[in-house]
Amino acid sequence: MLPPPRALPPSPGGTQRGAAVILALLTVALVAGLAAATVGDLGVAMDQVIGRHDQAQARQLARGAVDWARNVLAEDGRTSSLDHPGEAWAVKIPPTPVEEGEVSGELLDLSGRFNLNSLSEGIEGASPLQVSRFVRLLGHAGVSEQDALPLAQALIDWIDPDDQPRLPGGAESSWYAGQAPPRRPPNGPLAAVAELTQVRGFTPGLVARLRPFVAALPPGGSINVNTAPPEVLSAAIEGLSLDAARLLVVERERAPARDMNSFQRRLEERNVDNINTTGLAVRSTYFLATGRARFGVSMVRMEVLLHRSEGQNWPAIVWQKLL
Ligand SMILES: [Ca+2]
Ligand SMILES: [Ca+2]
Predict the structure, then answer these.
(1) 107, 90 in Cβ contact below 8 A?
(2) What is the Cα–Cα distance from 188 to 196, expressed in whole angstroms?
(3) From residue 14, how far is each of 19, 65, 86, 140 by CA, in Å?
(4) Are 170 and 184 within 8 A, CB to CB?
(5) Which of 12, 158, 225, 240 has its CA 20 to 30 A from that of 102?
(6) Which ligand is nearest to the CA of 77?
């Protein structure tokens, strides 16, 4: 009998401390952002339209929230070797009043999800391990066993570089050319989860059910077993039932796994042995940062995909969108 896993520090005051750290960092980011905006304004002609001025200020505020997010992640990378929802980065900034406006933001860990683009990591454009994981995930999204593999094949065809349809269920340019509207598979990684609705067999309903469990990230990267929901854990680990995964998540809330060895020991306690740990980790590398801001009459939302790689804590921007 193994001793129970030792709990990590998240004390009752942990969240409050996390929030205090975040507010302090946010203040720094916002002051820097506003100062830059003010300096920039000195040279702006007097006939500037108020709306455009407010738009620029709101954008600065949203960018301040995203800078805050990068600071929090960089600080976390310096001080911890694992990632779990009890850490400071997981604390959302509630709508916080600032002069003439309001700012809020949050970080969403995308490493706790199944990366759809990992399907094409293997030899001949498909990874058998990732395909079996995705097939199980489709099962958790309500897809029958006989429909799951054809859906996975269709998605691999959409991503893989060739124009040869896989059997069963695959589809390439000839099939898509006959659809309404006709379209072409990109034969490359998905740019967004929403693109799934273009793929043969993926109905809007199915895509909505999959959405909380999947991400469209650059190929590579790992699933963080400390943040993945039960559906993703059960899909990623052969032999781990959804019920057992739910219990594992409850246990994880008390004490996140410190490393993959301790995670494996927990699985062994549940008679899940010899798991394939390829593509599994206790850390997160991809985060979606959202900054929202209102200034005067303008509102903006900024979304930034951040990549925090091993040994380089300052998170890089993969892409950003202003909404
Ligand atoms: Ca961490
Ligand atoms: Ca293809």
Answers:
(1) yes
(2) 13
(3) 9, 21, 8, 33
(4) no
(5) 12
(6) 1
- The strand pairing partners of 215, in sequence order, are 115
Ligand nearest to the CA of 120: 2
Please state, in angstroms and rounded to a whole number, the distance separating the CA atoms of residues 77 and 107.
14
Span from the CA of 252 to the centroid of ligand 1 (angstroms): 14
Q: Are strands 280-281 and 223-224 parallel, antiparallel or unpaired?
A: parallel
Q: Over its length of 323 residues, how does the chain's per-residue pLDDT go in tens digits?
A: 444 444 444 444 445 555 555 555 566 565 555 545 444 454 444 435 667 888 888 999 999 999 999 999 999 999 999 999 999 999 998 999 988 899 999 999 999 999 999 998 766 678 899 999 999 999 999 999 999 999 999 999 999 999 999 989 999 999 999 999 999 999 999 999 999 999 999 999 999 999 999 999 998 889 999 999 999 999 999 999 999 999 999 999 999 999 999 999 999 999 998 889 999 999 999 999 999 999 988 999 999 999 998 777 789 999 999 98
Q: How far is the CA of 179 from the centre of ligand 2 (A)?
A: 16
> Rg of the Cα trace of the chain?
22
Please give the domain boundaries of the chain with CATH numbers for all domains: 14-109+289-322 (3.30.1300.30)
| Location of structure tokens 């942990």 | 14
Contacts of residues 184-188 at CB distance under 8 Å and 24 or more positions apart, as own/partner, are 185/157, 185/158, 185/159, 186/158, 186/159, 187/158, 187/159, 187/160, 187/161, 187/162, 187/163, 188/159, 188/161
